[in-house]
């Protein structure tokens, strides 16, 4: 019971944090600003900076981002994040990151109607809705985090494109 309560409190506080950040100043914060200010996406933000994608994702968009949390990145095999962040692996890092982005602002109710979505990387992600919403093998933990140039759906697993 205490664990369940702790999980619910944590989920509620994350949700409140996202709502507060995304809606602050009348939705003037873009997807990058929302992710930075939340604090649960330090690895994702560092990767976006290393790949040189900040200006793109701060652009007009709109973008739908399936955003893995720091905990999602920690589930990758040891050394994976460090390897991807090396300058010589920028192309691979860019492919991984753009595999998390779909053109357009696709809210959860529309995502749930899809069976796949083409990413900016070029490959499609598979969408399943039989037990909650899943993108490939990632669970959508928090949908519809609004930003001025799109929407973020928080996921619990890093999506990796086929090589």
Count of individual beta strands:
7
The best one-word shape is: globular
What separation lies between the terminal Cα atoms? Answer: 43 Å
Radius of gyration (CA) equals 15 Å
Estimate percent helicity: 40-55%
Q: Outline the low-pLDDT stretches.
A: 1-25
What do these coordinates show?
- By secondary structure, this protein is an alpha+beta fold.
- The protein is built from 8 helices and 7 strands; from the N terminus they run ααααβαααβαβββββ.
- A 7-stranded mixed sheet has the order 2-1-7-6-5-4-3.
- A hairpin with a 5-residue loop joins strand 3 and strand 4 (124-128).
- The longest helix has 22 residues, at 2-23.
- It is globular and about 40 Å long.
- It starts with a helix and ends in an 8-residue tail after the last strand.
Spell out the key features of this protein.
about 160 residues; about 20% strand; globular; 7 strands; alpha+beta
Outline of the structure:
By secondary structure, this protein is α+β, with helices and mostly antiparallel strands.
Topology:
Elements: H1 2-23, H2 31-38, H3 42-51, H4 54-57, E1 63-68, H5 70-74, H6 80-85, H7 90-98, E2 101-103, H8 108-111, E3 116-118, E4 124-128, E5 134-135, E6 138-147, E7 150-155
């Amino acid at each position: 019971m205490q664990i369940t309560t702790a999980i619910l409190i944590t989920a509620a506080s994350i949700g409140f944090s996202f709502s507060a950040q995304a809606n602050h100043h009348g939705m003037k914060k873009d997807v990058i600003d929302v992710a930075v200010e939340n604090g649960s996406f330090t690895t994702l933000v560092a990767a976006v900076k290393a790949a040189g994608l900040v200006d793109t994702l701060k652009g007009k968009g709109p973008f739908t981002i399936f955003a893995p949390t720091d905990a999602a990145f920690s589930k990758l095999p040891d050394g994976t994040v460090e390897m991807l962040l090396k300058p010589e692996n920028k192309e691979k890092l860019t492919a991984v990151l753009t595999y998390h982005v779909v053109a357009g602002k696709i809210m959860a109710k529309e995502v749930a109607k899809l069976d796949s979505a083409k990413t900016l990387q070029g490959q499609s992600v598979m969408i399943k809705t039989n037990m909650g919403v899943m993108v490939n093998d990632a669970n959508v933990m928090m949908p519809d985090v609004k930003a001025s140039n799109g929407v973020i759906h928080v996921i619990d697993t890093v999506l990796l494109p086929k090589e």
